[in-house]
Amino acid sequence: MPDETALRNPGRGLGWRVRTAVAGRVVLATFGGYAIAALSTAFLSLVLPMVRSEAVATATLLSFAVMVGAVVWVFAARTLVRAALGLAIPGILLGGGLWLALALVDTASPA
Predict the structure, then answer these.
(1) Residue 28 in contact with residue 74, Cβ under 8 Å?
(2) CB atoms < 10 A from the CB of 21, how many?
(3) Residue 65 and residue 57: Cα distance in Å, rounded?
(4) Hey, which of 57, 58, 65, 74 would disulfide with 83, CB 3.0 to 4.6 Å?
(5) Among 40, 47, 51, 54, which residue's Cα sits nearest to residue 93?
(6) Taking the alpha carbons of 30, 32, 38, 40 in that order, is the dihedral positive or negative?
(7) Backbone dihedral region of 14: left (phi > 0), alpha (psi from -120 to 50 degrees) or beta?
(8) How many angstroms separate the CA atoms of 102 and 37, rounded?
(9) pLDDT at residue 88 above 70?
(10) pLDDT tens digits, residue range 31-87?
């Protein structure tokens, strides 16, 4: 049970390590979540079996859910390293899938 002074001044009891860990999670959630969402949008825009404009719109709408999932993952992970790995692994897989999709999909515009 916390003491009364910590309850009266909630910000004073937190150390610099806790504040740094939270700041690191905020930065990771912001930039890592954006990267995952952007990679998934680009990847899904190329591989969804729809007309290109519908695929882009669907991928863009799905990217909002991907971003929220990434942010929830970062703050739910036990450590900051585990959170970073939880974003790095899907990022690498999405990057590889995007690279492969760009190599295989005909991206030339119709003339």
Answers:
(1) yes
(2) 13
(3) 14
(4) 74
(5) 40
(6) negative
(7) beta
(8) 17
(9) yes
(10) 999 999 999 999 999 999 999 999 999 999 999 999 999 999 999 999 999 999 999
Q: What's the predicted TM-score (pTM) here? A: 0.80
HEC letters along the chain: CCCHHHHHCCCCCCCHHHHHHHHHHHHHHHHHHHHHHHHHHHHHHHHCCCCHHHHHHHHHHHHHHHHHHHHHHHHHCCCHHHHHHHHHHHHHHHHHHHHHHHHHCCCCCCC
Q: How far apart are CA 6 and CA 106, in angstroms?
A: 62
Do the beta carbons of residue 86 and residue 73 sit within 8 Å? yes
Report the candidate in 21, 13, 12 with the shortest Cα–Cα distance to residue 74. Answer: 21
Residues 6+ apart with CB under 8 A from 55: 44, 45, 46, 48, 49
How big is the chain, counted in residues?
111
